[in-house]
């Protein structure tokens, strides 16, 4: 039986449920799916950043044999929607159409071609001639703050603004002896999932079924229903195998378009974006410009902090408000401070649209604040590790803003353990290199959440049943993003019911057959909340099974033992009955099914924490950065599957390193994008990716399943500032714009010399 | 839809026949690593593609009396892994080993790299420095040689006629006292397009003095070019720290002259110092710049 830390399935590194199918290429992604009579769709995206469409000439495209139909603003619904809305009743700014008559960024959706094959669809899309009345464009978010003669939307260029905080910030800054201010810029980042956006919509009668690698089936259903004005019951969304998302497929971007094309043509339609369209025409990590001030005393105690952040929402609102709030909340949950102010303004610009991107604002927030903290430490001549240890939150601290409790937050332990493993003290004190190659070290801390509790409804209904073979089926709207969610759920159910993994089937989201889930795969909630639900419903089933079994075995419920697929009275261990046989007995004797349904509402939302330590070597001639060593320490609560956790941390580090040194969607002054492909949008590639040394702090959380907390997003939070701190430490610069490309490093070096 | 004709010659005679009929909308297909992308991006729509992959005569690296010849169908991987090339022409081995990714090098050819005429083509720089010639074949069945430089107009434009094909790259042997090196700087360690690339061939006498030098630079204008000012700096000097410093300074000047006012000037004039140092290490060994020679 289970005892703390002595689990049979929890913490074990079992392979993911579809590993063999994936490794052998047998798995069918949506891009591999073909159904009878299927048509192929291709989008036409805007090639100007801001303009009114004067005319669209589709005649040449329409004449191409194989073209079935072409859709534009003229022959599509004029219903405004916001793809960010994941639940009915959410009051969001509605500012997007299926196809627009006014383009607002280089990549805005102008038309779609449906044809009998992919090549013809692409050829026809290229033959569509769009004439624009080009309007002046706003590219820089700070321009958007003050410019009101150019209106991207009628409602003005400020999408959202909010100030929150506590204490008397102005007074502290008047009196403090040390104040350090930095202005820091973070880039627009592409999610770079291997699988680009793709969806398949199949009409049948008045029903449309959509296969999509999505994060929230009920959100896709809701948005399709709203954008096309059809009832929810006529839209069925099935989560398909996911070839990577990282937030990029969080909002239903192409699904409503694909559903519309299928509805209009009456035939199955598959819509696929290519890499360029995925980079420019979907969502990006929001660019931010943060001005942060920190007041400290001589001993290194933080007296107050003030952060003013401009968030570049891009051409549409989507989650401009949610991202600002999400960032703000993290700002108060990292260091103990008495006076804090957070002001955020999200603005529209004529640039690619912001959305969820692994970390949901936390990477940007920490990229700004943790860079500033190193400047504070440098300014008061303190070791940045010592400085942080003085100010970090302690386990079970309360949220000063009244948010959910921080829980058993182990950031101090993360920093201590990481510093030791990294050899921080020696490396920090090491004399500085003066030659061409210079080594440096940096670290940063980060925090993130565990779901939506405290902000939005956070619940999931799960159905579970055990059949007369002793097999268990867990039915709920989970979505495996490739992180191993299905296997995680199997491990949780297996642990509770003491049943081997192969006997547990875990279904994924299908709006027709899955019970409702309030938020999908967002907000690092899946292991914590959905895993919590899986544990709870397994316990309910276990209790029910034990209750009926005790009647059949003629013993007390407390005497019932479930072990490895067998159930028995602990006083008669020689009379073991297989789970399946017992289920069959219960059918016959009590006319009862071994099933349960339960709606689990998350009871908490603790902080999850990480500390990253990085050593770099900078080539002062070429500005190239070689990352030599990374130590990532994670306050994980409890690892359900250790290898999955390691995989998440390595992936998060990979994404964050890109933000630190190479990834940026580049726009010129007219909003034209130059990074249209991986030939010049540079993710970190294998030769440049260092090993990551991972340390897990497993101090169980009170509410998470078996004490587990999230890891998927927090893993991408601290690495960028840790890396830039290391670069600045190596070459004595104060680079404050991410990514620190070779050009920026050389420029900073040249400036420092002067 | 426009039809595209694919010709698949199996030997040089058949190739001559294909070239005879070639016009300005014909393209030669080597590895296809640029051509196919250009077709997909609609930058090119050839009426006729002449696929060289069936011509076995083009797939050899041959040692002749005074030169080596690399067939137009030889892949970059085959070039950079060839032990004779590595020994005698390290600059070319280094350049071919750093083009694109392993997958690209397994398909791409030097002839294609020249024919594509990109300003940052990695193989062009060492070939120019090594004084390589191109053996050509045309539709009249004529064989002749031209210098590499003549085949390239610049900025992605070649200077070849539709009815002629590069069939071999011929590189004369260097004197035993010569050595060569190539280096490139891109945005990252590997799989990167050059922001700067350069190749140097030097002849060093028994007194450890450079008696002949050739310096070629790429990615600093429409096409690779010779830096005579840099060669002058190297001539009749001993390779050491001071010479490296002079070499760096002159190449910084060369960058300033090549791309004045360009956005990338600041970066390139600085980064080229790194390229100089790497070239020195490859040519003269690590110790020369530590002042131990």
Description:
The complex is a heterodimer of chains A (754) and B (293). By secondary structure, chain A is an alpha+beta fold. Chain A has three domains: 155 residues, Aldehyde oxidase/xanthine dehydrogenase, molybdopterin binding domain (Aldehyde Oxidoreductase, domain 4, 2-Layer Sandwich), CATH 3.30.365.10; 179 residues, Alpha-Beta Complex (Aldehyde Oxidoreductase, domain 3); 240 residues, Aldehyde oxidase/xanthine dehydrogenase, molybdopterin binding domain (Aldehyde Oxidoreductase, domain 4). Chain A contains 19 helices and 26 strands. In chain A, the strands form six sheets. Chain A has a seven-stranded mixed β-sheet, sandwiched between helices. Chain A has a five-stranded mixed β-sheet with strand order 7-15-14-13-8, with helices on both faces. Chain A is globular. By secondary structure, chain B is of the alpha+beta class. Chain B has a domain of 112 residues: Enolase-like, domain 1 (2-Layer Sandwich), CATH 3.30.390. Chain B is built from twelve helices and 14 strands. A five-stranded antiparallel β-sheet of chain B has the order 4-5-10-6-7. Chain B has a four-stranded antiparallel β-sheet with strand order 11-12-13-14. A three-stranded parallel β-sheet of chain B has the order 1-3-2, covered by helices on one side. In chain B, helix 10 packs antiparallel against helix 11 and helix 11 packs antiparallel against helix 12. The longest helix of chain B is centred in the C-terminal third of the chain and has 20 residues. The relative contact order of chain B is 0.11. The chains are: A alpha+beta (754), B alpha+beta (293).
């Amino acid at each position: 039986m289970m005892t703390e830390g002595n689990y049979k399935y929890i913490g074990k590194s079992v392979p993911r449920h579809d590993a063999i199918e994936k490794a052998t290429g047998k798995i069918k992604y949506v891009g591999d799916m073909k159904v009878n009579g299927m048509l192929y769709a291709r989008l036409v995206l805007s090639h100007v950043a801001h303009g009114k469409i004067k005319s669209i000439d589709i005649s040449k495209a329409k004449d191409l044999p194989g073209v079935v139909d072409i859709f534009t603003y003229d022959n599509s619904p004029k219903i405004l929607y916001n793809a960010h809305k994941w639940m009915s009743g959410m009051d969001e700014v509605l500012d997007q159409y299926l196809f627009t008559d006014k383009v607002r960024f280089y990549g805005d959706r102008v038309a779609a071609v449906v044809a009998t094959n992919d090549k013809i669809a692409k050829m026809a899309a290229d033959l569509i001639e769009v004439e624009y009345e080009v309007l002046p464009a706003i590219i820089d978010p700070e321009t958007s703050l003050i410019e009101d003669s150019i209106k991207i939307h009628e409602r003005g260029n400020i999408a959202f603004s909010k100030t929150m905080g506590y204490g008397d910030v102005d007074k502290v800054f008047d009196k403090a002896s040390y104040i350090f201010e930095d202005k820091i810029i973070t880039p627009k980042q592409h999610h770079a999932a291997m699988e680009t956006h793709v969806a398949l919509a199949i009409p049948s009668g008045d029903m449309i079924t959509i296969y999509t690698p999505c994060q929230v089936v009920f959100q896709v259903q809701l948005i399709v229903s709203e954008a096309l004005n059809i009832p929810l019951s006529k839209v069925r969304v099935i989560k398909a195998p996911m070839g990577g998302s990282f937030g990029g497929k969080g909002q239903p971007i192409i699904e409503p378009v694909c559903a519309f094309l299928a509805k209009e043509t009456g035939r199955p339609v598959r819509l696929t974006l290519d890499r360029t369209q995925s980079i420019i025409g979907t969502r990006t990590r929001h660019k931010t410009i943060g001005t942060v001030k920190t007041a400290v005393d001589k001993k290194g105690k933080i007296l107050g902090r003030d952060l003013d952040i401009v968030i570049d929402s891009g051409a549409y609102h989507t989650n401009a408000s949610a991202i600002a709030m999400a960032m703000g909340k993290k700002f108060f949950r990292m260091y103990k401070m008495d006076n804090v102010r957070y002001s955020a303004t999200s603005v529209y610009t004529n640039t690619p649209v912001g959305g969820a991107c692994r970390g949901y604002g936390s990477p940007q927030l920490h990229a700004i604040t943790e860079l500033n903290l190193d400047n504070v430490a440098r300014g008061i001549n303190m070791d940045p590790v010592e400085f942080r240890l003085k100010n970090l939150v302690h386990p079970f601290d309360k949220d000063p803003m009244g948010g959910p409790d921080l829980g058993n937050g182990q950031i101090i332990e993360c920093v201590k353990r990481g510093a030791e493993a990294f050899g921080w003290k020696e490396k920090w004190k090491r004399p500085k290199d003066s030659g061409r190659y210079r080594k440096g070290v940096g670290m940063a801390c980060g925090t993130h959440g565990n779901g939506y509790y405290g902000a939005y409804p956070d619940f999931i209904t799960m159905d579970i049943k055990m059949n007369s073979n002793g097999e268990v089926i867990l039915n709920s709207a989970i979505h495996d993003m490739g992180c191993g969610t299905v296997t995680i759920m199997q491990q949780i159910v297996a642990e509770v019911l003491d049943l081997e993994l192969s006997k547990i089937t875990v279904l994924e989201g299908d709006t027709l057959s899955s019970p409702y889930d309030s938020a999908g795969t967002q907000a690092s909630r899946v292991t914590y909340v959905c895993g919590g639900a899986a544990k709870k419903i397994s316990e309910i089933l276990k209790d029910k099974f034990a209750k009926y079994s005790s009647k059949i075995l003629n013993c007390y419920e407390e005497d019932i033992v479930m072990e490895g697929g067998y159930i028995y009275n602990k006083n008669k261990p020689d009379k073991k009955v297989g789970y399946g046989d017992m289920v069959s007995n219960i059918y016959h004797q009590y006319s009862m099914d071994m099933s349960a349904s339960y709606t689990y509402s998350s009871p908490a939302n603790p902080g999850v924490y990480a500390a990253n330590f990085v050593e770099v070597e900078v080539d002062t001639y070429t500005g190239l950065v070689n990352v030599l060593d990374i130590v990532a320490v994670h306050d994980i609560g409890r690892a359900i599957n250790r290898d999955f956790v390691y995989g998440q941390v390595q992936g998060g580090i990979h994404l964050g390193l890109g933000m630190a040194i190479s990834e940026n969607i580049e726009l010129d002054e007219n909003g034209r994008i130059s990074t249209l492909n991986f030939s010049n949008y540079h993710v970190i590639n294998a030769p440049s990716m260092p090993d990551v040394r991972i340390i897990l702090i497993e101090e169980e959380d009170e509410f998470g399943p078996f004490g587990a907390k999230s890891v998927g997003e927090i893993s991408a939070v601290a690495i960028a500032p840790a890396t830039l701190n290391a670069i600045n430490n190596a070459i004595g610069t104060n680079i404050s714009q991410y990514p620190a490309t070779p050009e920026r490093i050389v420029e900073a070096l040249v400036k420092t010399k002067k | 839809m426009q039809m595209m004709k694919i010709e698949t010659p199996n030997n040089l005679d058949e190739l001559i026949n294909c070239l005879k009929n070639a016009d300005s909308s014909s393209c030669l297909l080597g590895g296809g690593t640029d051509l196919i992308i250009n077709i997909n991006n609609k930058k090119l729509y050839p009426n006729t593609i002449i696929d060289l992959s069936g011509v076995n005569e083009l797939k050899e690296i041959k040692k002749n009396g005074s030169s080596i010849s690399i067939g137009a169908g030889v892949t970059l991987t085959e070039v950079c892994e060839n032990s004779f090339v590595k020994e005698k022409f390290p600059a070319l081995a280094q350049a071919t080993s750093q083009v694109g990714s392993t997958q690209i090098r397994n398909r791409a050819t030097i002839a294609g790299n020249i024919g594509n005429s990109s300003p940052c083509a990695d193989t062009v720089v060492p070939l120019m420095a090594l004084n390589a010639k191109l053996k050509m074949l045309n539709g009249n069945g004529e064989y002749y040689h031209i210098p590499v430089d003549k085949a390239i107009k610049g900025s992605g434009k070649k200077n070849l006629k539709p009815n002629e094909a590069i069939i071999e790259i011929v590189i004369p042997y260097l004197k035993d006292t010569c050595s060569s090196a190539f280096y490139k700087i891109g945005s990252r360690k590997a799989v990167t397009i050059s922001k700067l690339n350069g190749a140097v061939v030097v002849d060093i006498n028994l007194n450890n003095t450079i008696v002949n030098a050739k310096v070629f630079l790429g990615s600093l204008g429409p096409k690779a070019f010779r830096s005579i000012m840099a060669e002058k700096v190297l001539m009749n000097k001993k390779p050491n720290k001071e010479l490296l410093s002079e070499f760096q300074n002159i190449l910084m000047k060369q960058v300033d002259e090549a791309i004045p006012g360009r956005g990338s000037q600041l970066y390139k004039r600085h980064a080229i110092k790194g390229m100089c140092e790497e070239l020195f290490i490859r040519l003269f060994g690590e110790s020369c710049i530590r002042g131990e020679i």
